[in-house]
Amino acid sequence: MTSLAAIPAFAHLSRATQAALAGHTVGVRYRADAVVRPAGVPVDAALLLLRGTVVAAYRAPGGGQLWPVRWSGPAIVDKPTPLGGPSPSDAMLPPRT
Description:
Elements: H1 15-22, E1 47-49, E2 53-59, E3 65-72, E4 75-77, H2 80-84
Antiparallel strand pairs: 1-4, 2-3
């Protein structure tokens, strides 16, 4: 598994601080099509993405799929609302043609 030091925000931390942070993490692997956080589930933790890609996806009113946010590791998935909150408001949807 990739080290937390690979995440740019943590790269400057000392090894001791990185180790302390790692002590508060839980490693999880998801299959490629897994739902990490279903819509409406409260966000209770940050996601530290060491490898791979996470996409926040929603069903549009017309049935299509919107991908409003995308992260590729190593990264902090820093927008928990798109992953755990309600569907985007109409203001966030593309204009209807």
